[in-house]
Amino acid sequence: MEYHNPVLLKETVDGLAIKPDGVYVDVTFGGGGHSREILKRLGEKGKLYAFDQDKDALTNVIDDERFVLINENFRFIKRFLRFHGVRKVDGILGDFGVSSHQFDVAERGFSTRFEADLDMRMNQGDELSAYHVINEYDESNLRTMFFQYGELRNSPKLARAIVNSRKEKPIKTSVELKEVLKPFMVKYKEHKILAQIYQAIRIEVNQEIEVLKEFLMQTQDVLDEGGRISMISYHSLEDRLVKRYIRSGMFEGEPEKDMYGNISVPFKKVGGLIIPADEEIKINNRARSAKLRIAKRI
Q: What's the domain range around 40?
């Protein structure tokens, strides 16, 4: 199954500072590009566990006795590593968002380019789909979703249009949804606005913000001292969470200080923000919004 080149491949794997006999986790296996690079750097005693909830990813399983693919959501990282007898690991890699493969398979409904049923489920076994969100969420929830996850200022108008339209008949396909939202497409900005709308729906369907928070909170328990996280985000909502968590071990507020004014945080950032070079963006357009942050468990 065709999967595109992983974004920031060298930089992300370099960020893990791989030890040949270490234990590592790739929580977003996809086409296996990052995993294959990690395995190249591991010795005979090294071990790599990978997570992917999408059954399509199973076709890319790597035939290597050092490798284990876990077909589950990475929000359960601690539980499933323990199931495999793993308490501590030396590094965790995450490449968040939708894979190029998921965008390119029309019937999955992730892309604005194709006509498809409203779906957008990363795990096709989940009940909640884009169809349910668009046709069953009340106006208030739709408004909040478009504002929070799509950062769309006209979210009240978008929500009202959807609710009014579905009174006549359900909105079943991407083409029907685009038709309903056509009045809100600003000339020359149609693609950007649609992308924001799709992003909001996709994040809601897959609970991406909740999943990321749950996962990040577990990394401090799973990582050994000196272990590293290497995380790629594609939109400001995710990147903000990763940045705040690395800085303070929290998503809101500031950590408490002791009587001497010191704060106790689980991570120390390694280097600064890394973004793709122009050459990589030319080859892989998906890389254009990628942001990589690396940190070490202390």
A: 9-100+208-297
